[in-house]
Amino acid sequence: MSEPSQFSLSALGRRRAPGLPEFEAILDLLSRAAILVDAQTLRIHSANALASELTTFTRAELADFDLRVLFTHPDDTSLKKSEVFDPRTVTLNRRGGSKVLVRLSPATLPTKGKWVILSMEEETLLKRQQSEQRRSQELWENLQLLASAPQQPDFETSINVALLASRELTGAALLSLYRANDHRPDLERFAGLGDSSLLPETLPPQDLAALPKPHLWMPGKRNLSDLHRSGHSHKLSYMATIPLGKPKASIGLLVVADAQAPPPDHLFQILRLLADTFTAIVQQAVLISQLQEIISDQARGLRISATVEETAHEGLIVLMPDLHALRINPAAEAMLGYSAQEVFGQPVNHILIGTETLLPALTAAQQGSAANTLENLRIYRRQGEAFLAQVRTLPILKDTELEGIVILIKDLSEQEQIREHTQQLEQHAILGEITAIFAHEVRNPINNISTGMQLLALNLPEGDPNQQLISRLQQDCDRLAELMKSILSFSKPAEYEMENVDMGQLIQRLLERTQLRMERTNVKYHLQSDPRLPCILGNPRALEQVFNNLITNAIHAMSETGGHLALKVQRMDGPEGRSYVEVSVADTGPGIPKEQQERIFQAFFTTNRNGTGLGLAIAKRIITAHKGNILVTSFPGGTIFHVQIPVSES
């Protein structure tokens, strides 16, 4: 208890100045030894009971005692008057000649310097009190440090902080922590302070069973475990252990030991506090690890779910229990024409607009009914376009409570198109067979009619007016015969005997054959061919038919005004290292209108009144049979056909 350095009248609550009786009464209230001194004469006026006990003089003997006799310097020299009333350590000369060091603390009274109270504390007692205060302060600081350990940001820091606090609380030089291993029965040391070589790295599970409660081992006691045997061999002064975890459910062991110092007071109470802290840290780390695994699994599941939603071809709509949209996947966005941001929170009937059978299915799902599949529904896109779809409703239940509804939409329009296209192909196949039979059957009568016309022409004189009519009929027969020939060529399977073909030479031969026809129509040609051109694998007659048709069409396009025909034969490298030979046939004719470009390879489509409409269709079939491709680029003032055929691997 600290004493006031100065008294005040207001503190005493009196209006008149206090007298000596009041000061003497104050002395007896003080918790330390104190004397009332005349500041002028340095004589003691009175003393309290504690001062009598400390000085070993009675209170009567201390009255009128010279202060300079009672106190001297520690070196036994006399105190000066000016030194008496300064806080200092002096020697107290007690009855019988014994001496003791005391600490003087003066307190000036409101008596105009007449009286001074000197309090005294024995130096050794004061130091002991200060030491106890320091120990108490350190204890609280270490307890606060120990309490803060579980709040550290990571497991390793928490353990290290707790170990530092444990060393200060126990004073032990050696601390070790062991914990159970999930993969083997031994206990392994995972943290500690001090010389780790004095204790084993691992402990058998029997040690944990042999030490189920706090235990203190000291030299001379029975060795119950490998720990005790290690302590005995290293001559430790003591070893204390306490299990971590709950009774009968231990998860580890705390070991506290020292090679020289004895065990501290209240050791078991400290150990229990430390064990609770380390148990909390370890269990918290295990819980955090488990939560991290759960979070990682959930994050993995969410990534998988998101990937499935993003890449699924089926449209997906997730509804809340009140049938308002929560989210849709990209496939549903593409099908319906809405973005995910637009549909959030919207009623489902604002997004999924279809037949009347859709609403009952959603109502049934809202009531927790089983999954329902609706076939061949007409669903309307945002723009009002309808498409055929299969819709499945899947309620999401937790126990019996509805958490949401999943709607899966499968666009059947593509399947419908495939079905229609298949039907068309079947019809075309049937029509092709009928056409081939028809062409074969019609060709013989046409030949007979043509022969009859020739006989009639021979039997009539040259000037007969019927000769002109017979000639026109003969031309029509020839045209019909050529048409039947083209139909039969188009309808029969394209199977060719393949051989290595030099496309440069093949094109050169065709140009030489048509040179006279080009001169008559004022068409000039130019051929550019790569001399290092590789061969392709093809049928020469079929390829001649293709390029003869392309050259003939180009000449016909320029027949009225003349023009230029340019052909280029070159090697090209395609994707995945594949090479092919490309033949480009370009003319300076009027070009092909854009709306006709997509139809020119269709059978029986032609802009030439004398044509059959089968030339380019047959050409495409031939090039396809050669695993190649034929493309067209046209614009006002020119047309270019690109024919690409793979290079022969041999």
Reported CATH architecture of the largest domain: 2-Layer Sandwich
Radius of gyration (CA) equals: 57 Å
State the shape.
rod-shaped
CATH class of the largest domain: Alpha Beta
**Biggest sheet, open or closed, and with what strands and sense?**
6 strands, antiparallel
Task: Describe this entry's structure for a reader.
This protein has 650 residues and is α+β, with helices and mostly antiparallel strands. It folds into 5 domains: 9-130, PAS domain (Beta-Lactamase, 2-Layer Sandwich); 152-289, GAF domain (Beta-Lactamase, 2-Layer Sandwich); 313-407, 2-Layer Sandwich (Beta-Lactamase); 417-491, Helix Hairpins (Orthogonal Bundle); 499-646, Heat Shock Protein 90 (2-Layer Sandwich), CATH 3.30.565. The protein is built from 21 helices and 24 strands. A 6-stranded antiparallel sheet has the order 2-1-6-5-4-3. α8 (155-170) runs antiparallel to α11 and α15 (413-459) runs antiparallel to α16 (466-491). The longest helix has 47 residues, at 413-459. The chain starts with 8 loop residues before the first helix and ends with a strand. Mean pLDDT is 83; it is low at 1-16.
Notable traits:
650 residues, Beta-Lactamase, 5 domains, 21 helices, 24 strands, 43% helix, 25% strand, disordered N terminus
Topology overview:
Elements: H1 9-12, H2 20-29, E1 33-38, E2 44-47, H3 49-55, H4 59-62, H5 67-70, E3 71-72, H6 81-84, E4 88-93, E5 99-108, E6 115-122, H7 123-148, H8 155-170, E7 174-180, E8 187-193, E9 202-203, H9 205-210, E10 215-217, H10 226-233, E11 238-246, E12 249-258, H11 267-311, E13 315-319, E14 325-328, H12 330-336, H13 340-343, H14 358-366, E15 372-380, E16 386-398, E17 401-411, H15 413-459, H16 466-491, E18 499-501, H17 503-513, H18 515-520, E19 523-529, E20 536-538, H19 540-557, E21 563-573, E22 579-587, H20 594-597, H21 615-625, E23 629-635, E24 638-646
Parallel strand pairs: 19-21
Antiparallel strand pairs: 1-2, 1-6, 3-4, 4-5, 5-6, 7-8, 7-12, 8-9, 10-11, 11-12, 13-14, 13-17, 15-16, 16-17, 18-20, 21-22, 22-24, 23-24
Helix pairs in contact: 7-8, 8-11, 15-16, 17-19, 19-21
